[in-house]
Each structure stands twice: as C-alpha cells, then as structure tokens.
Structures
1.
Amino acid sequence: MPHFFTRNLFVQVSAAMTESILIHHCTLLTESGAGLLPDAWLLTQGDIIAAMGQAHELPRAEISPATTIIDGRAMLLMPGLINAHNHCSMTLFRGLADDLELAHWLNSHIFPAEARHVTEAMVYHCTKLAAAEMILSGTTTVADGYFLEHQAAQAFIDSGMRAVAAQGVIDFPAPGVPDPSRNLRTAAAFLDAWQGRHPRLTPAIFAHSPYTCSNQTLQGAKKLAADRGAPFFIHVAESRAEQALIRTPRGTSPIRHLAALNLLDPQTICIHCVWPDDGDLEILARSGAGVVICPQSHQKLASGTAPATEMLRRGIRVGLGTDGCASNNSLDMFREMDHLSKTQKLATMEATSLPAAQALACATIHNAALLGLKKSGRLAPGYKADLILLDMRQPHLTPCFNQDLLVYGARGSDVRSVVIDGRLVMRDHEILSFDVQDTMGEVRKLSQAVMKAAPDWNKPR
Ligand SMILES: [Zn+2]
C-alpha cells in the first residue's frame, strides 16, 4: 500500500487499483477560498484522486510506465460538474414546443409526445445523446428522473457517466407503466435490479409532483425509497398555478402538503421550489431536505425566480440542475451556473447576491451532498476521480485572474478532456467511451416519427 503525501494529506491506494492518470503543468482549482494553483499536478489511482500538488512535489517514483500522462499546459483542472436534475430522454423533444406556459406546454405537447414516442429504445438512445452533450460540456454526474429508467441506467453505464437514475412514479398511465396501480411495484423492481449493481449507478425514486400523485402514492413512494436507503425526488412549488392547484382542495401550500405527509427529510430532494413562502422556507430549513433550482427552465417557462439567496442564508441545502432540455434547451452546466448567479442578482436587486464561488459550489460539492455522493464534487485526495480540463487558450478566457471567470465567462465547449471514475472518457474533445455519431444517427431516426406526428413542428410561433 504506497502512500502519497500532498498538502498534509495521506491517501492509501489499493494495490488492485492499477489504472492511473497523471495530469501535470496545469492550473488547478483548489478548495474554495484557496483560489487557483498554477503549475500543479494531479494523480489518479483506480477510481480516486491519489495525490495532487505543485510541480516541485511531483512524486516521480509513484508514476509507472502504465500511467497515462496528460500535459495540462494552458489547461485548468477542476472537478466535473454535477447536474442535479434532468430528464435525459427528453433530448428527443428539444425545440419541439418552445415559448409556451408550463401547463399548456406539458398537457398539449409534452405529455402527448411522451405517450406516443417513449419506448425502451428511445430512452436508451436519447439518454446516451444527453450523456454525450453533458460529457462534452464538462458534466460528469447527472441525476435523472424518467420512465423505463432501466434503459436510462444502462445508457449511463455504457456512456461512462456517473448517475443517480430515478424511476418515475405518477398516477397516470406512463411509458412502461400503463396501469398506474402498478407504479410503486415498478419502482420497487427498479431498485431491486440496480442497487449495488454498478459503482457508477445509484438507483432512486422520482415522484412526479404533488398534483399528479395522490397522498397514498406519495407516501408509498417515499416509504419505498426510505426503506431501501435510496434518494427521493419530487417536483414541487414550480409555478403559481401549482400553488393554486394544491391550495384549493387541500387548503395549504405544496411544501406544507409534503411536510404534512412526512415526505421531507435529508434524503428528499425538492426540485424547483420557486414559490415558497416564509413558512415553507422554515419547513425546508428544519427538515434538511435538499432543493434543486433550474434557473433557465424557470425563465423559459416564466415560472419565476426561486429565492436561492434567501434559502442559502437560512441554511437550506441548495443545488443546481438544468431540467430536461425540452424546457431549457441546453444541458450545459456552465450556462446554468451563470444564470443562477445573475437571476439572483436581478431578483434581489443586489449585485453581491449569489457570488460566482457559490454558484460553482452549487454545481459541484453541494450537488454531490444532495445526491448522497459523499466523495464527489471536489479535487482532494481520496475523492472520486471525476475531473474536467478546460482549454484556457481562448480570447474569452484571457486573462484569467480567478475562478469567477469559470461562472461568468467559460462555456461547456471550453472543456477539452474528461475523466470519470478514473477513466478517460473524453480526450481533446473526442468522446472515447462510445460512438456519438452512431447515437445521433439513432436519435435522428426516432425524430422522423416525432416530425410526422407534429405537423407544425417547423412553423414559427
Ligand atoms: Zn423536471
């Protein structure tokens, strides 16, 4: 068991972990507060970061002839970004129905398209297409929620990504669950099939929302997740219309409704939370439940601006996601960080609100904590080797004084190479883990049926 010493940290590396990557002469994004470390190196062993430091500390004796060496000159090395909310299969519906309000978008376009086009093959290929877009733009982990999630889980494994894959639960006939009375049994079978099966895959449960699931379904889904120690996701308080929909029959807010059903605890991740009132914020803070904000989707659907600044001030655990690309329409987490920070400044009329470092934390270490990925989201020995390298030799990244440029200036297309779980999945903009051309070909074939079924898809609104 060799020891590597760096910055007062020892890491024991298992002899069985033979694969290793050395990235050297790079600029390294260190723990928050310490800034950027020039002329640095990082060494992986197996699936973890074994050691890191500056040039004069390089442990040459520990580098074997089998080590893959990447020259990181003019590159910035940072943790892979984590997208805490996505419906990856919806890549098939990107741009199909833009510029519509949420209820009309869902009921007249998305739900009918899903009923017609979602198949096992569609979920597999379209999830892989999403994985390609995410890897190319520096996302190494995603939390996905959809139906036929077995296929999504397989797509994540085949693409090389790390994922929390959640089987959807809803009280309507859904792809793979034509009889909604079987929705919890289907979800249980999904957990049975995937728990402990692959080191990059965490299975979970996704209850669609308080307005599409009965109390009984919500409590059953949460109990199922809690009994198996799985994360539990739910869309909640996304729009003002949803507030009215819950308040009228139940006399309370969507978040109080979830609290009354005992659904809120640190393993529950509430997606959106655009419209919490003061009491709702208090409940969220007390419960330890996570909140994932999707700023571009909230803007595009005119849902509103989630009070992320106030949530963080109250100690609520806030993460960041893109939502499905039909309501965004991008899966680029660099764009999402930029929007998170700027929408908070506008909503609070305070330029100091949600600074860049906080947006970066939301997309990395905060998201890792929300998803229960204890050793992800930061560059530190012993953490998962999920890494991205940005090419800094570009006009819009020159000069680079500090990490704030990663939020306000960098784009997903600046990512040059990606390591996930200690494996090089993209090098010099080329995905190595699967054939992206083949995946795009499959999705183009699937899109023919979508075009035929929606004759006005090409007409400007
Ligand atoms: Zn969503």
2.
Amino acid sequence: MIGERRVPAEIGTVIVGGGIVGMCLAWFLAEEGHDVAVVDDGRHAGTIANAGGLHVQLQSRFMRLYPEMVPEFERTLPFYPRAVRHWQALASRLDEDIGLAVTGGLMVAESREQYEFLEKKCRREQQLGLEVEMLDRAALDRIAPYFADSIVGAELCATEGKVNPLLANQAIRRKALAAGVAHCTETRVTGLAQTSGGFAVETTRGPMRTGRIVIAAGAGAAELAAHLGLKVPARAEPLHMNITEATEPLIHHMVQHADRQITMKQLAAGMVVIGGGWPATLAGAAEHPTVELDSLIGSLSLAQHVIPRIGSLRLIRTWAGVNTSVDGRPVVGPVSGISGLFFAIPGDAGYTLGPLTARLVAHSILGRTPEMAIGEHTADRFNS
Ligand SMILES: Cc1cc2nc3c(=O)[nH]c(=O)nc-3n(C[C@H](O)[C@H](O)[C@H](O)COP(=O)(O)OP(=O)(O)OC[C@H]3O[C@@H](n4cnc5c(N)ncnc54)[C@H](O)[C@@H]3O)c2cc1C
C-alpha cells in the first residue's frame, strides 16, 4: 500500500532527489559499502523529461539568453567532454543498451553573420581544448546531406552525442537497487535540521535521522537549502519537447542551430526527438509542467524548416518538463560550516553532466580527490 510505506528511520546517507545525479550517486556510494536512501517526490525531474543530448560545445541558446554568464559557461566547459567520457564508462557497466552514441554534434548557420558567430565560437572553443571545426556547406553535405537549402554551414563538435534517457534511467536505477539503495519514491522532504549527530529529515512518509545529507534535488534545492539557512538560487525552467514516429536512419548527429532554439536527434529506434528549450508553463497549484501551443507550433515549424524531411513525419508525443537553472555552473561538494551536508546540482545540460557530477560528489564524500577541482563550484559562493 503506497500510503503506508515508511522511510527508513535511520540511515547513513540520505540523498534528496532521484534524478540522474541522485541515482548515480546512490549507486556509486552503495557499491562502496555505504547505506543510502534516495528520497524523491517524483514531481519535477528533468531526468525523466529530457532529450538525451550529450552536449559539449557552448550552446548558442544559453549564450543568447544569458550573455552575462558566458564567462561562467566557459569556466565549466572542460566538464563537458569529460562528462561524455563518464557516460561511455557508465554505459559499459550497465547490463543493457542505453542508446548511447557519440556521433558528433552539428550547430548549423543560416546566414553569413551566424556562420561568423560560429567561427568565432569555434576558435574560442579550440583555445579551450574542444574538438571542434567549421564545415562549409559542401563539407556539411558530405556528412549530413539532409539540410534545407538555407543552411550555409555548421560547426562540428566530434565528442557530442546522444543517449536514450528512458533506457538509461531504468538501467541505472536497477543497478542502484541491486547495490542495496533504498529508493523512497513519491516521498517529499518537507524539513531539514541539523542535530548533534547529523540531520533530522522530515518527509511525507515519516522522519529520518542521518549522518549525511546530499541535496540532488534540482530546482527543489533552493527550498531545501533554505531549511538550513543557506541560499542556493536554483530555479525551475519549464521546457517543451516533441518526438516523431520512427523513420529510416536520417540524422546521424545531434543538430542545433546557431541562432534559433532547436535541437534534433534521431534515436536508434528511428524516432526524431525535437527540443531546444522552447518554454512551457507550470500550471495550477501543483505547478504541473504543461505544454504551450506556441512552443509546439514554433518548435515543429522550425524543425522542418531546418530539415525538410521531418515535415512528413507524424508527431507521436509532446510533453513539458522542468529544467534547473542556477548561474551556469554546477553546485557541488561540501558546505563550509555544516559537516555532512553536500550539494549535487549539475550545471547547464545537466543530463550530460549527471554521471560526472555524481562521481565528483561521491569522491568528495569518500574523502578522495575529485578528478576535477570543485572548490570554486560549491554552494559557498552564494553564502559567504
Ligand atoms: C525538456 C528538457 C530537455 C532537456 N534536454 C537535455 C538534454 O538534451 N541534454 C542535457 O544534458 N540536459 C537536458 N535537460 C536538462 C536535464 O534534464 C537536467 O539538467 C537533469 O536531468 C538534472 O538532473 P538532476 O538529477 O540534477 O535533477 P532532476 O532530474 O531535476 O531531479 C531532481 C529530483 O528531485 C526531486 N525533488 C525536488 N525537491 C524535492 C523534495 N523536497 N523532496 C523530494 N524530492 C524532491 C524532484 O521532484 C526530482 O525528481 C533537459 C531538461 C528538460 C526539462
């Protein structure tokens, strides 16, 4: 009986949030012998709604929306190629295929100005160590001969790719459960307080006591941090998605646009996933992520404008989900002055960063040196 399920009263580590970060982290800690509970209310996970794009190059959408954050995006750029390698390592440890393919990503331009914007971005990314190059239309046609006549060229990032989140989430959850993780679903954390030995956690299925708490709650992190007197400006960003019926292999790369909101990729099963950050709304008292008609029409019109053959495909599903936006950087690791508290919030393109973020936080918890310096990415930057 769902309503009668209680959370474990006492456990070594509580992870709030069972998205890609929380579940990977729980798995990594459990296989090191830790007893771990993941508490998740199942309301707003980007993990179950996302497009499965493995992003590496700077996303022009973020550069346009948040120009003041470009230096922040650049600071975390080295995380992305490493994050894709973490996905590859993770996939090799799973028992099933998760549709992971690192086949490269194209960001297309439709005008001379856009092409020059990409050339500049490409030069900067090369300086920062990314595997990127510019393709004129002839070179683009040799690897992707399906674009509209209006496309003049593209930036290619060889290390980008895609994964099928529906398959990956289930495969990771199975691994976490097999390692002994207690997954407390449909359970909301409503209060957090420090105690002499750790933390008292109030949930909708009873209280918990724990020595360590990890906030991997995406957009829910701001409210949870506030219980402990901390500021973490995580906010919900509801976004729109579409998927078409399956068709023959057409789109090999992940596709984005230099100046307009679109991402497209084709799953191994043939469906084309169309997103790109078109807005959705949070409707009603439950703030349910809800599709906006303008986004549905806008995203699909743009998709067939860029790749005309998409126009003949039927749409089989459209949905909305909640992304988390902070300041363009992750919020990871311990918090000064509160022993046993950790944050685990990825930066932008958080599904790409999920397994890496979990690994960095796991190493921090286990007292090992994380493979990338995380000192400047802790929650301390909001609380000093
Ligand atoms: C439509 C869409 C498309 C996207 N496409 C991509 C993409 O192609 N590539 C990419 O890299 N990223 C993409 N993202 C972003 C990505 O999905 C997220 O950044 C990522 O999944 C975040 O994972 P997470 O584990 O940090 O948090 P989430 O997946 O958001 O999970 C957090 C969980 O914590 C729970 N929670 C919050 N507060 C509480 C509480 N008080 N008590 C209990 N539980 C709580 C939430 O309900 C949720 O289940 C997309 C996002 C959206 C919405």
